[in-house]
């Protein structure tokens, strides 16, 4: 899943993969990290970039580093000043 930013940057995530491996529903994960089921749904679909705080909550829940779940991909069309 890849989410686009204003500068062509994106964040890919493996939330779905980690959740399925843990045999959890979206609702169960949402409750564990303090967000709605809808937030988990749109994040897994690639339509939502989580806050840094939420990214850390998710990583801590699965006992992995943030960059094991979320990957920053720098875009090639950044505005030059």
How many discrete structural domains? 1
Strand order of the largest sheet: 1-2-3
Give the % helix: 40-55%
Strand content: 5-15%
CATH domain fold name: 434 Repressor (Amino-terminal Domain)
**Main sheet?**
3 strands, antiparallel
Whole-number radius of gyration? 13 Å
Low-confidence stretches: 77-81
CATH class: Mainly Alpha
Average pLDDT, to the nearest integer?
88
Terminal Cα span: 30 Å
What sequence of helices (H) and strands (E) makes up the elements? EEHHHHHE
General shape: globular
The chain-level structural class is alpha+beta
Keywords: DNA-binding
GO molecular function: DNA binding
Domain HTH cro/C1-type: 15-69
InterPro entries: Cro/C1-type_HTH, Lambda_DNA-bd_dom_sf
Structure, described:
By secondary structure, this protein is an alpha+beta fold. It has 5 helices and 3 strands. Helix content is about 50%, strand content about 15%. The protein has a single domain (about 1-75), classed as 434 Repressor (Amino-terminal Domain) (Orthogonal Bundle). Helix 2 (about 25-35) crosses helix 3 (about 35-45). Mean pLDDT is about 90; it is low at about 75-80. The longest helix has 11 residues, at about 50-60. A 3-stranded antiparallel sheet has the order 1-2-3. It comes from Bacillus nakamurai. Keywords: DNA-binding. This is Cro/Cl family transcriptional regulator. GO terms for molecular function: DNA binding.
